Amino acid sequence: MYRVGNAVEVVSTDGLMVYPKVLKKTFGMKINKFNKIAKTSKIVHKVTKSDSGRFNYKIERFHNTLRERTKVMRGFHGDLESARIIMKGFEIYYNFIRKHLAIDCTPQQKAIPTFEFTDKNKWLELINLGYGN
């Protein structure tokens, strides 16, 4: 288990009833008799339900895309380092190569509009940029 100290101020979740117990275990938050985070906790638990109109569809879309990719993988070859490498590759693919329907471009094109790929092979160009070539 990892402790984050004072780095986390707000935790946003949907209304799943198991989150208070997980937040207690992870952050040491106090739970009241109604299975809610106690008001004396230093971290705010913000619950957003899909019917409120404020549901975070963008992160849910990412989670579904990530799940589509990882569900078929069988244990990441049994070690955490291969899982870290594969997930870093997926992060690069998701942000630099995969066009997103909602924004009609990649997140990189929205965040860094001045950066343009010069090579048709975007993967190779990103690798070369990482090596400083």
List the total number of helices: 5
Helix content: 40-55%
What sort of overall outline do the alpha carbons produce when their principal axes are compared?
Answer: elongated
Which H/E pattern describes the elements? EHEHHHH
Tally of extended strands?
A: 2
| Uncertain stretches | none
Q: How confident is the prediction overall: mean pLDDT? A: 76
Q: What quaternary form is this?
A: single chain
Major pleated sheet: 2 strands, parallel
What is the percentage of strand-forming residues? Answer: 5-15%
Model description:
The protein is 42% helix and 6% strand. The chain is mostly helical and 133 residues long. The protein has two domains: 10-52, no CATH class; 57-131, no CATH class. The N and C termini lie far apart (39 Å).
Task: Provide tags for this entry.
elongated; two-stranded parallel sheet; 133 residues; 2 strands; mainly alpha; 2 domains
Q: Summed up, what is this model?
A:
With 133 residues, the chain is mainly alpha-helical. The chain is 42% helix and 6% strand. The protein has 2 domains: 10-52, no CATH class; 57-131, no CATH class.
